[in-house]
Each structure stands twice: as C-alpha cells, then as structure tokens.
Amino acid sequence: MLKKQPFADRLLAQMPSLRALKCFVTAARYESFTQAAEVLCVTQAAISRQIKELEDSLDVALFERTGRHIALTDAGRILYNASYLSIMNIAEAAEAVRRTDRHALTVCVSHTFAALWLSSRLPAFRERFPSIQLHVMVTEHFMELDELMEPDIIITKNPPREPEYDVEPLFHDVVYPVCSPTFYERHFRDKKLKPLDLLSQPTLNLSLLGRAQVCEHVDWRVWRNWFQQGDGTDILADNRRLESNDYRLLVAQAEAGEGTLLGWHHLVHLQIEQGRLMRPVPDALVFKDRYHYLITHRNARPRTEYLQFRDWLNEEAGAMMRDWIDTGVATTG
Predict the structure, then answer these.
(1) Where are the domains of the chain?
(2) What is the pLDDT of residue 94?
(3) CA neighbor of 46 nearest in space, from 56, 34, 61, 30
(4) Which of 77, 168, 236, 276 is the most buried (most CB within 10 A)?
(5) What is the distance between the alpha carbons of residues 89 and 316, in angstroms, rounded to a whole number?
C-alpha cells in the first residue's frame, strides 16, 4: 500500500515553476512586460508565455490588460505579495552561491558591443585564461537591472553614479565613413573624393529614435555640417537608402553593398582589416572627450580574475586605438 503523500509534498508538486514566478514578479513590479523582458534579458514573448502558462495553471487572471498597460488583479496581488519576498530570498541565495566561484566574472555590455566588438575576441580570451568563467549580460538598460543582478564589470558610454562603482575611460570615439569594396568599385572608383561627395550616393543612417550605446550626436547631418565650406555651393541632399536604430543591421547592410555608413572605429575596424569594409575617404571625426568607460564594482577590484580581464581589455583597446592616440579633433584628407 502506498504511503499517503504529506500535505507539504503535495503543495510542492503543485507549485508553479520558479521561472514563471520570476517573470510574474518582475512584470508586476514594473507593471510592464517589456521592461520585465529587459530586466531578465529575455524577449517580451517569453515573458508573456510564462505568465500565460502561470495563469492557465492557476485558472485565474493575474493581470488586467488594457492596451499596453497591465495592472494586477485581486488574485494577482495576493500572489505577488506572497511570492515577492520568497523570490528575492531565493535570488539572494543564488547570488551568494554564484559569487563563491571566485573565477566567475559578470560582464554587462550592450547588444551592439557584444556582437561587433566582444564576440570576436572572446575565443582568444578563453584560450588565454581558461580558468576564468565569464557571465556576459547583454542589455541596453544597465542601470535598470534588478539590484540582485549586480555585474562586476560594465562597459558603456553612460557611467553610473552609484558610489559602489569605479569609472575609468577605456577608449574615445572615432567616426569615419565605410562601405563595401563592391560599393566603392561601383560608385567611387577613379574619383578624387571629398567628404561630401559620399552623400551623392546611397547612405545608411542610424535612426534618431531608439539609439543606444552608439555615439548619439553623430550622423550624416553632422558629417555634412562639419565639412561644408559655408558658401552653400556644396550642400547636397541626403540620399538615404536605409535608416535603422539597430547598428548591427546597418553594418551588415554596408557589408552587403547597400550604401555608405558612418562607422564607429571600435565597431568596424575588424571588418576593415578583414576586407569586408573599407574607408572610401581618409577623413575622420575624432572625439577625445567622448568615451566608452570601464565601470567596475568595488567588490571585484581585488580579485585576480578581474585584474587579468582588465589588463586584457586595456591591451585590446590599446591595440585598437594605436593609430588614433595623437589624432586631433578632425582630420581631412
């Protein structure tokens, strides 16, 4: 005869998944599926799916949905009040356990930086430091992370003001036009180009809306204004082929020969070295007062693995910027 299952065991068996509860608590806290997705570094669809499954398992609506606005129902408020502290306690315990691994470093970067700068360098880092485990968190909203998702290192253009973080400049901004070799052959070959001549052919444009972690103040209008002579004779109409707030998409389109793009040196120099992109003119804008910063949590500073990562990062940044150390505000060909 089977032993009767204790009441506590039955409750555990019927308990919703922690993943669903985490999504629910985060969405309730911010009253937004979108912001919950950013905080948890997942898609909004994943948040919606987890909450729908939670509602189905409980057979009750947890949120009232009005357009994009959500609010807790009475049942949702009961569940939130009961589960918030428990979820936070579990998260704190997990963080404490995670940090017992003295070789693990949590690094927070933007999507663009992760895709176009960090990803190609990680294999060499892992080969050089096989004992260091990296936790890479990719998000555009560094300072809106839950307080329990506290990175050791943040690389960003917008340093935090919290006293527990130390800030040091990593490298400054350099911006110049790039295009594919095929685009150059088709539109610019055998021409003595001036900076504004690039605007006579299709350009790829970083949108004014939704820009993140890329130099917001530089676009083709800035390029045109910088190199105009001032007499009105060289004013050219924009010839826009594509506009997007996703810089990764624009780089891919430039590689595909769809137009000329303003390239941030740290995001396109590898493509130039590999021959996928080229500089059609030697002109560049160099901003010595605008930086990407290395932000370090003070608890991470004494750790050997942090010091090794920081030295490696500075080596990579130094090699990348070696041709731009003594360059002025702007160079013209």
Answers:
(1) 7-98, 103-333
(2) 67
(3) 34
(4) 276
(5) 39
Burial of 255 (0-12, 13-18, 19+ CB in 10 A): buried
User: Residue 330 CB: number of other CB atoms within 10 A?
Assistant: 14
The DSSP code for 197 is G
Q: pTM of this prediction?
A: 0.66
List, for residues 201-246, the tens digit of each pLDDT value: 999 998 876 555 555 567 888 898 888 865 454 444 556 778 888 8
pLDDT digit string (tens) for 60-112? 999 998 877 899 999 999 999 888 888 887 777 666 655 555 568 999 998 89
Instruction: List, in order, residues 6 or more apart from 227 with CB less than 8 Å away.
Output: 194, 195, 196, 234, 283, 332
CATH code that applies to domain 7-98: 1.10.10.10
Q: How far is CA 304 from the centre of its chain?
A: 26
E strand residue ranges, the chain: 63-66, 69-72, 104-109, 133-138, 153-156, 165-178, 203-206, 240-244, 260-264, 284-297, 330-331
330 forms beta bridges with 285
CATH 3.40.50.10420 fits 103-333, yes or no: no
Closest among 284, 85, 275 to 177, alpha carbons compared: 284
Whole-angstrom distance, CA of residue 139 vs CA of residue 58: 32
DSSP for residue 199: G
